[in-house]
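Here is one chain, start to finish.
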Amino acid sequence: MDAIRTLHPAYFALVMATGIVSIAAHTMKMPAVPLALLAVNAVAFPVLWALTAIRVVRFSTDALADVTDHQRGVGFFTAVAGTSVFGSQILILLGAWTVAMVLWVVTLLLWIVLVYTVFTALTIKKSKPTLDRGISGGWLVAVVATESVATLGTLLAPGLGAGREPFLFVSLTFWLAGGMLYIWLISLIFYRYTFFEFSPSDLMPPYWINMGAMAISTLAGTLLLANAGDSALLKRIEPFTLGMTLLFWATATWWIPMLLILGFWRHVSRRFPLTYSPLYWGAVFPLGMYTVCSYRLASVAGAPFLLWIPRVLVFVAVAAWVLTFVGLVRSLLRPSALRPG
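Its structure:
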């Protein structure tokens, strides 16, 4: 029971990472891998919800403390993104439109409840940490959660017939809101990077969400572009959408060398131990998302020369998933199985 009491709110990043790597493998026509990862998520998704429900009921004090914690509170947004990515996975691999629609509705409701609950709690709490102690790349999961509403919504839109226009409008507003939220948060994160002391322990795996948030924003943009022919509004702003999508992809690309350099500094130069933590799923997710968004961008932007990126990166994403999953399995053999590392 102690493992459930200390369950990290960000554990739904496991579903996020598994879902998007599955979609990436499907996109690049890898055999067996997409359905194998779907099977993993078919188990992980309900199990995590069951554990979360038990935690909320049996250990409500701990769960409430997480909501008001500047580091752990934002982890709840992985439940939003995880639900959406699982819905996208089911829709793309199985064509189960109705199930995906139900998961989109759940995603939207979770977004409304969690985004405003967590940010309100962090705003009105009396005792707050300094910026360097309170913010990390994990805050950008709020962007991922927002963009996830747009991605699954846009994927579902073609099945709505005459109702797709307002549905695409909702997706468009979430895409734009996620982009604005990224600007707010990355400004604070970059400020923390460059004007406060930075130790290896501060460079947590969720800093990869710096890139992942822009990757899913790129994906959402490419999906909106692909649906522009079905929406008068999207058709009118198509050049703007393409320009913003390219901006998001360029930003995601800029982050990759920076994060690799900092990772080398952390684990090689400063010899920080590389041990399993549920937070590492937040590093696997961006790799899968960048693979998928680059593939989609090559198509909608008429840039086939970009296809080498997903063709190479899909193997990196799958390998990262396997290594992290092995770490998870090994951790489950220990008493502290579900605790953050």
